[in-house]
Design goal:
This protein has one domain: Rossmann fold. Helix content is 34%, strand content 25%. The protein has helices spanning 64-68, 76-90, 107-120, 124-130, 141-149, 162-170, 190-200; strands at 13-23, 26-35, 40-46, 56-61, 93-98, 154-158, 174-179. The longest helix has 15 residues, at 76-90. The structure holds guanosine-5'-triphosphate (GTP) and zinc ion.
């Protein structure tokens, strides 16, 4: 008798369609995916990364406040722009936009966590814990499944977060190189970035 794996990789993300996506950094193709929980994710693909030995990839975690609303509490918006610009300059690569807002706790809980930080002086980790959440509830299995579907399983990853490298590798992706992506440091996010370095091991150096 054979038993089914708990999370068959083929069920992690199903591709639903694709289209042109012209941007100021060049033309991407946008691929839609739905995961096993019904969450919607996208991949922006430029060039032929499936034919490249190790294309440039960014796995970006959704941050509505930073990516769309210009918040300076974090560095997400400038990182997103920097990643798209670098892929545009390379003429090839993939940006996975993962809908794991608030490190996986969701937008409304992130706003609650921001409130705890404002009222109680908690840092980003303490605020999650005060609300009963893990400091980082993200899972990179969906991103790995999306990359596999796109034929990209060996890559260079734009990130400062060593956990992201480990998470993708645990899901079967070969990260040949980690490339730092430092953008958007400002007086409002200084303490947040220092906490990420101290408690999550984020690398804030240029290598
Ligand atoms: N719960 C919570 N989530 C936050 C907070 N600040 C930012 N986020 C979320 O954190 C995620 C981005 O994580 P980061 O740690 O900035 O970056 P990363 O993706 O881990 O690493 P990089 O690849 O180096 O950017 C997004 O989903 C944000 O919405 C916060 O104070 N609390
Ligand atoms: Zn952010």
């Amino acid at each position: 008798m054979t038993s089914e794996p708990a999370n068959p990789p083929e069920l992690k993300a199903t591709e639903t369609g694709e289209a042109r996506l012209p941007t100021q950094w060049g033309e991407f193709r946008i691929h839609g995916f739905e995961d096993a929980h019904g969450s919607e994710h996208v991949a922006l693909v430029m060039g032929q990364p499936d034919a490249a030995p190790a294309p440039l990839v960014r796995v970006h975690s959704e941050c509505l406040t930073g990516d769309a609303l210009f918040s300076q509490r974090c560095d997400c918006g400038p990182q997103l722009e920097a990643a798209m610009k670098r892929i545009g300059e390379a003429g090839e690569g993939v940006l996975i936009y993962l809908r794991q807002e608030g490190r996986g706790i969701g937008l409304l809980n992130k706003i609650r966590a921001y409130g705890v930080q404002d009222r109680e002086g908690a840092d980003t980790v303490e605020a999650n814990e005060a609300l009963g959440f893990a400091p980082d509830a993200r899972d990179y299995g969906v991103a790995a499944a999306m990359l596999s579907t796109l034929g990209v399983e060996r890559l260079k990853l734009l990130t400062n977060n060593p956990q992201k490298v480990l998470g993708l590798e645990a899901a079967g992706i070969q990260v040949l190189e980690r490339l730092p992506i430092l953008a958007g440091r400002n007086p409002h996010n200084h303490a947040y970035l220092e906490t990420k370095a101290a408690k999550f091991g984020h690398r804030l150096d240029q290598d």
